[in-house]
Amino acid sequence: MQHEKDAQSVKSAGFSNVRVLNEVNDYEGITLIKTPGQHGKPKVLEDMKALLGEVSGVIFKHPDEKSFYIAGDTVWCQAVEDSLRQYHPDIVILNSCDAQVIGNESIIMGKQDIYEVYKAAPEATIIASHMEAVNHATLSRKELREFLNEKGMMQRVLVPEDGESYTF
Fold first, then answer.
1. What is the pLDDT of residues 107-132, one digit of tens each?
2. Burial class of 85 by CB neighbour count within 10 A (0 to 12, 13 to 18, 19+)
3. How far is Cα 35 from Cα 166, in angstroms, rounded to an integer?
4. How far apart are CA 131 and CA 99, in angstroms?
5. Which domains does the chain show, CATH number per domain?
6. Three-state DSSP string of the chain
7. CB atoms within 10 A of CB 78
8. Measuring CA to CA, which residue among 43, 118, 132, 38 is closest to residue 84?
9. Is the CA virtual torsion 117, 106, 37, 160 positive or negative?
10. In this predicted model, what pLDDT tens digit does every residue of 33-61 receive, in sequence order?
11. How far is CA 162 from CA 67, 129, 132, 154, in A?
12. Closest among 157, 146, 87 to 115, alpha carbons compared
């Protein structure tokens, strides 16, 4: 879990093998690196920080596998850019439904955020997930695919259907 508060919540749901991530963690030969994120643009964070809470991502590294970055519930921000620059992940997973709160304020990535990640990580394969998964999502798979096609990004950005999987 990203912090003790979340760990306690998961433990209260009946899970017993719950661990809090440190900045760098080793688990059975896999290195997990906790990364920061930003659960909304500055205005929404100012108004709703307590409700939105802290967010983090995780980089997974193993000497025999491609590196993997799950950005988490974040928008494009300096922290994401820094993580991409520092760790150069091979695969990047983005929560990308452009979920919004009152006032049309994005709290996770939308099309333009994905485009920024695409430019900042020119060697990475990007998986745009989370579409059509929550009721405050404003970006559909269809709309995202149209955007990706217009920008010439289809070769490196995957938009999985429900139940679809990839092997790298």
1. 999 999 999 999 999 999 999 998 88
2. exposed
3. 24
4. 9
5. 22-158 (3.60.15.10)
6. CCCHHHHHHHHHCCCCCCCCCCCEEEECCEEEEEEECCCCCHHHHHHHHHHHCCCEEEEEECCCCCCEEECCCCCCCHHHHHHHHHHCCCEEEEECCCCEECCCEECCCCHHHHHHHHHHCCCCEEEEECCCCCCCCCCCHHHHHHHHHHHCCCCCEECCCCCCCCCC
7. 9
8. 118
9. negative
10. 999 999 988 878 777 877 787 899 999 99
11. 24, 9, 9, 18
12. 157
Q: How many other C-beta atoms can be found within 10 angstroms of the C-beta atom of residue 15? A: 11
Reading the block at residue 17, the tokens are 């093998």
Euclidean distance between CA atoms 1 and 8, whole angstroms: 9
Q: Is the dihedral of CA 40, 44, 50, 52 positive or negative?
A: negative
